[in-house]
Design goal:
elongated; 19% strand; Lipocalin; alpha+beta; 2 domains
Length: 303
Amino acid sequence: MQKSILKKIVNVLKYIAIYNLSAKMITFAIPKLLHMQFRQLHSESFVYLAEVSKFQHMWSFFGRSYHYNLFIGIAEFLIGALVLFPRTRLIALLLSLGVCLNIFVLNIEFEVFFAISHITFDLVITLVLLLEYYKDIYQFFIKLGGKFNKVISKPKHKFLRLFPYIFLVVLSVGYFVFSIFVKSMYSVNHEIVGSYELNTLKVNDSIVTLRKGSIGKKPMLFFEHNSQLVLSAQDTMYVGFYMIKDEKISLGFDTPTTFGLQRLIDVDFNENQIKGSSENNKVFEIGYQRLTEKEDYLNGLYQ
């Protein structure tokens, strides 16, 4: 009786582990398919290589190629889907072992400390679930038999047989819709997001001589995908925000610039110029030019 109860508890824990691994893989796969993970900020792309952290270096490396993200995302999605079904579970677990072990080493070596705990958990789950197949794995890879003689038992209840399909469809579609929603909140305007060189700056019709800031070799302006605005000029970097609504833009910085700009209201803008009044009634005209894809590869990567 006690052995029967223990067996049921172990079986329940096993399926909790399986569905946990499936959910983790699918929810990490979908953002990669939508090119949401490993996004690099334009302002960070102008930091000299010697000054880039290990984490930022790895992040930008993976983020540079969408097709590589697509490849990883498809692999993770296949793991999340195949692990749900007894006939394909071993394939999924072997794939998961390779993926998790690779990510585990990357996270340690590139100091992605916040992600080490969750990938360790996924790796442990994968190894524990693989224990059930150790004899078959030994036979296939060592003895070259490759035969799995156990008959796969199907759940008696129809709902239990259908549940893996329901779980897969509901989680995948639901998280895809959720990811699209999150992406829409930050993708304010694909046409304006990017890196720009500042050409001219006028304050009340007086020309301000621009010097390079703390990022890059020229005065720069960065419109980021997360509504962040970064100005690199006058030997300083200013961080703020921008918002586009009904073809009008509002922008501001957390701290005032050396030439008195903190927030612009009544702003007119086009692809080469921003003109508006500040809260202290100064009129600013900012002329800028978008960098080519050759000058900044990120300007063509997320279009």
